[in-house]
Design a protein that fits this description.
Keywords: Glycosyltransferase, Membrane, Transferase, Transmembrane, Transmembrane helix. It is a single chain. The chain has 366 residues and is an alpha/beta fold. It has eleven helices and 13 strands. Helix 4 links the parallel strand 2 and strand 3. It is globular. The two termini are 24 Å apart.
Length: 366
């Protein structure tokens, strides 16, 4: 169901809603980051053992050694478009490198209509949720997008990587899944055991202990297509039920849909291999090393001495939210001396992509 192309501009009201949405998202990030400073200390100092959790008997299955389809859910907003272009550039560059198990790529566009990137990025258009159902929480469209895509698209690979626009492949990514056990990234702020009362509303005691709910979101996750086909409809339902419950909505906030995926997986008896080398998140993770994906969700603010000024706009900064209505310019200024290698690498990778993507300025102007 590839939809028609559309060159329309985003309405002023949409930009206002986006700005409000990102204000609340930024607020949530600021409250989470205080915890991240302490909990990620081990990650910043290096990864001695990247596997933090392995379901029973998974080692006996061996590595999957099968290609996975890269599925990127997105909207047609300029903010999403420029991130998708950078992400797709690095996918193409890493796909054929030694160690990669990447297969084909699809941007699952949940805007209900095509956009001007249809010819540049392989795209499958699906419908958003009915108007008002997401209540301004746009990521509720993600599970619904996967349900539609899985039902209607032809997907050759047996495995799927669920990815997001603000992911950059820093190293060739192998298939980290083992048979029926998907691989996921453990998020420090997804803590099912600390929210047992709420989790039990959606994951009853007869299903098992709360510890069976993995500390993950849906992305990044590499999972068998057949398993995702089972989980996705439950993921939709749990997401909507969580959003309809005021206590759950308040407790989980911007990460509600992540909890919904974790609960939906547990309801189907699916446990994830927890790989802390799956992803890094500057500025808190200081080095890229052998990790596979750079997730640039946090703003990077520094003074000219190379000191982090998180929560205060720095003399030097890179924050994706600075570019809500259009793309970052080419050739961003590199960080000052003393800034961690992960941040320097991120900016260099953004600069390389923008320098080599045809029509960067013109196609991203609306």
């Amino acid at each position: 169901m590839i939809a028609r192309k559309n060159m329309g501009r985003a309405s002023p009201m949409l930009l206002v809603l986006l700005a409000l949405g990102f204000f609340f998202a930024t607020y949530n990030l600021l409250t989470l980051v205080i915890q991240y400073k302490d909990s990620s200390a081990g990650l910043r100092s290096g990864i001695s053992d990247p596997v933090t959790g392995m379901p029973a008997n998974s080692w006996k299955l061996g590595k999957s050694n099968l290609k996975f389809h890269v599925a990127l859910t997105a909207t047609d907003a300029p903010y999403s478009q420029w991130q998708c272009r950078i992400m797709y550039y690095w996918y193409k560059k890493m796909k054929s490198m030694p160690g990669s198990d990447m297969g084909k790529f699809t941007r699952v566009l949940h805007s209900g209509k095509g956009d001007h990137l249809m010819d540049e990025i392989p795209t499958f258009v699906v419908d958003p949720l009915p108007e008002g159902l997401d209540r301004g929480y746009i990521v509720l469209n993600r599970p619904w997008a996967f349900v539609q895509w899985l039902e209607k698209a032809t997907i050759e690979e047996e495995y799927i990587l669920m990815a997001e626009p603000d992911h950059i492949f820093a190293n060739p990514l192998p298939n980290l899944a083992h048979g029926d056990n998907p691989a996921g990234f453990p998020f420090f702020y997804i803590k099912p055991t600390e929210h047992q009362k709420i989790v039990r509303k959606f994951y009853p005691e007869e299903k098992g202990p709360v510890t069976d709910v993995d500390p993950i979101g849906n992305s990044p996750v590499i999972i068998k297509k057949s398993l995702l086909e089972e989980i996705a409809p439950t993921w939709v339902n749990v997401s909507l039920r969580m959003k309809d419950d005021p206590e759950t909505d308040k407790a989980f906030g911007w990460v509600l849909e992540m909890y919904a995926y974790a609960v939906a997986s547990a309801l189907h008896g699916v446990r994830h291999i927890l790989r802390k080398d799956f992803m890094l998140q500057p500025p808190w993770d200081l080095a890229v090393g052998k990790r596979f994906i750079i997730h640039y969700t946090y703003g990077c603010d520094y003074n000219m001495k190379g000191e982090l000024t998180y929560g205060t706009i720095g003399e030097w900064r890179f924050d994706k939210r600075s570019y809500l209505s259009g793309p970052p310019p080419k050739n961003l200024t590199l960080p000052p001396p003393g800034v961690p290698e992960s941040v320097v690498r991120l900016v260099k990778m953004v600069n390389e992509a923008t320098a080599n993507i045809p029509g960067w300025d013109s196609l991203n102007s609306g």
